[in-house]
Design a protein that fits this description.
Helix 1 packs across helix 7, helix 7 packs parallel to helix 8 and helix 8 runs parallel beside helix 9. The chain folds into two domains: 103 residues, Ubiquitin-like (UB roll); 128 residues, 3-Layer(aba) Sandwich (Cytidine Deaminase, domain 2), CATH 3.40.140.10. The protein starts with a strand and ends in a 10-residue tail after the last strand. It has nine helices and 13 strands. It has 281 residues and is an alpha/beta fold. The protein has a six-stranded mixed beta sheet with strand order 9-8-10-11-12-13, sandwiched between helices. Strands 5-6-3-4-7 form a five-stranded mixed beta sheet, with helices on one face. The protein is flat and about 60 Å long. A hairpin with a 2-residue loop joins strand 12 and strand 13.
Length: 281
C-alpha cells in the first residue's frame, strides 16, 4: 500500500535565495471499491466506486462509505473487506473488495454508479439527483445542550492528534469526541468526505456507539458531510469552516445540532433542535 506521505525534491525560494530541499506531501491515490455479493458458491463482483484518497485505513473507508451511502444498514452485512491481490501491478494497494453477506439484496440498477469521486467532492459523478440522497434508517436522538467550554477545546485536541498534518501542513481531518470532549477516533485524508467515512467505518467496526458523540471536521460543513453524520446517528457536528445552505436545511430537518466557524472561543450555531420551534428559526 502506498504511504500516506510522499517525499519530493523541490526548490525553496525566499529572502533572495533559492535552494534544493526535500519536502513531504500528502499522498493522493485512487481507491477502487468493489463489492462481492450473491450466494457464497457463486459470488458476483460489482465495481462500485473510485475515490481519490490518502492511503491508510482503506477498510474503514470502504465500510464507512457503504454505510453512509445506504448500501448496507448494519456492519454485520459485511463479511470482510480486503485488498485485492489479483490486479494489475499499478493497481496494487489501491483496490479493495467488500464481501457482502449472502442475505444482502443488492440492486445493481439502483447502485450502478461507477462514479469517480474527487478528493474535494463526495458526490461528483453520481448518476442522478436521487442518488445523492442517502436514506437515514433510524431517528436521530438530539444532542441536547451544547457546552461552550467543551466545544471550544475540540479543534486544538484534534490538531494535536493529527500526525500527517504535522508532517505536511495540509490534510483534512475528522474526529469523534464523546460528550465530555474526550477524543475517541481521528482520521486524516486528502478528502474531507473520506476522513468522515474512515471515522464512521472505524466506529462501526469497533461497535462504538455514536448516539451521544460529536463530530468535528477540519474544513467546511457541506451537505454530503452532514448527511453522513446523520446516517451514522451522530447528533452534533462541528466544523472549523462554514456550513452550506443545504447542509443547514438538512441538519434542521433531521434534528442535527450543527456548529460552524468553531475557532478560538467563538462559534456559530446554525441548527439546534432545542430552538427549532422558536420564531425566526
Amino acid at each position: 500500500m502506498p504511504a500516506p506521505v510522499t517525499a519530493f525534491s523541490i526548490t525553496r525560494v525566499g529572502a533572495g535565495e533559492q535552494r534544493e530541499v526535500s519536502d513531504l506531501l500528502v499522498t493522493e491515490e485512487p481507491l477502487e471499491i468493489r463489492l462481492g455479493h450473491g450466494p457464497l458458491e457463486s459470488r458476483r463482483e460489482m465495481r462500485l466506486s473510485v475515490t481519490m484518497r490518502t492511503p491508510g485505513q482503506d477498510d474503514e473507508l470502504a465500510l464507512g462509505f457503504l454505510y453512509t451511502e445506504g448500501i448496507i444498514t448494519d456492519v454485520a452485512q459485511v463479511l470482510r473487506v480486503e485488498a485485492c491481490e489479483q490486479v494489475k501491478e499499478e493497481e496494487r494497494g489501491n483496490v479493495v473488495r467488500a464481501e457482502l453477506h449472502p442475505g444482502v439484496e443488492l440492486d445493481p440498477q439502483r447502485w450502478q454508479r461507477n462514479f469517480y469521486t474527487t478528493s474535494s467532492c463526495g458526490v461528483c459523478g453520481k448518476t442522478s439527483i436521487e442518488a445523492v440522497q442517502a436514506q437515514c434508517t433510524r431517528p436521530l436522538r438530539p444532542f441536547g445542550a451544547v457546552d461552550p467550554a467543551v466545544l471550544t477545546q475540540l479543534p486544538e485536541r484534534m490538531r494535536k492528534a493529527q500526525t500527517v498534518f504535522r508532517r505536511t501542513g495540509g490534510i483534512h481531518a475528522a474526529a469523534l469526541f464523546d460528550r465530555e470532549g474526550n477524543l475517541l477516533l481521528l482520521r486524516e485524508d486528502v478528502g474531507r468526505h473520506n476522513a468522515v467515512d474512515k471515522v464512521i467505518g472505524a466506529a462501526l467496526r469497533g461497535q462504538l456507539p455514536t448516539a451521544d458523540c460529536q463530530l468535528l471536521v477540519s474544513g467546511r460543513a457541506g451537505f454530503e458531510l452532514v448527511q453522513k453524520c446523520i446516517v451514522a446517528g451522530i447528533p452534533l457536528m462541528a466544523a472549523v469552516g462554514m456550513p452550506t445552505s443545504l447542509a443547514v436545511q438538512m441538519a434542521r430537518q433531521a434534528g442535527l445540532t450543527l456548529i460552524g466557524f468553531l475557532r478560538g472561543d467563538r462559534f456559530n450555531v446554525y441548527a439546534d433542535p432545542a430552538t427549532a420551534d422558536r420564531p425566526g428559526t
